[in-house]
Amino acid sequence: MNDEVKPPNIFFETSVFIERYKANPQALALLKAAADKRINAHISHITIAELFDIMMRNYGEKEALTQHAYLKHAPLKMHPTTDEIAKEAGLYRAKYCFSLANGIILATAISANADFLVVGDKAFHDEKWNEITEIKVLSISDCLHLNIPPSLEK
After folding, report:
1. What is the pLDDT of residue 151?
2. Distance CA 108, CA 150 (A)
3. Do 116 and 34 touch, CB atoms closer than 8 A?
4. CA distances from 59 to 55, 86, 106, 143 (A)
5. SS3 for 131?
6. pTM (two decimals)
7. Which CATH class is domain 13-143?
8. Is the separation of the CB atoms in 102 and 124 below 8 Å?
9. Angle (CA) 75 78 79, round 5°
10. Using 50, 70 and 90 to split pLDDT, how confident is the model at 133?
11. Where are the domains of the chain?
12. Handedness of CA 70, 75, 76, 78 (dihedral sign)
């Protein structure tokens, strides 16, 4: 019998990358766990557009391009938006009254069979993420309390 602990499949909402940009130590630790392959990290393609938009409006084109380059090279499995995801996203947007981008992210996380959907701490409390019933949604700080396998590096 194989007792190896499999890394959890964790889907990231856009605010996780905003927190990374702001050097939030918890966001940095979570993304380091992805780089160390202690978690399987996933994002929706809509996260690229949303992050680029937020970075352009708040920090300028250079920072937006830098964050885009990070996403392209980060150890993240990127998921496209299918017709089914688009339909489900509309349903979730109506059900939870949040942005269409968040509806797409939620629908994509569910479609990807993620173990958890992780959002930034502020987003978790300010938006309707804590009302989601279709998947376990965690804040960044809550996610770090999971039993993430230790690094295999020596």
Report:
1. 56
2. 27
3. no
4. 5, 29, 26, 27
5. helix
6. 0.90
7. alpha beta
8. no
9. 155
10. very high
11. 13-143
12. positive
How far CA 144 is from CA of 7, 47, 92, 104, 128, in Å, comes to 13, 21, 26, 24, 21
Q: Tokens standing for 35?
A: 């780089």
The one-letter code for the residue type at 151 is S
More confident residue, 149 or 115: 115
Q: Are 37 and 75 in contact (CB under 8 A)?
A: yes
Tell me which residue of 69, 59, 70, 106 sits closest to 85, measured CA to CA.
106
pLDDT in tens, 112-129: 999 999 998 777 777 788
Would you state the structure tokens that stand for residue 30, as one six-digit string? 């979570």
Give the length of the chain: 154
Cα 73 to Cα 91: distance, rounded to the nearest angstrom: 32
What is each CA distance from 136 to 20, 37, 56, 78, in whole angstroms?
22, 21, 31, 20
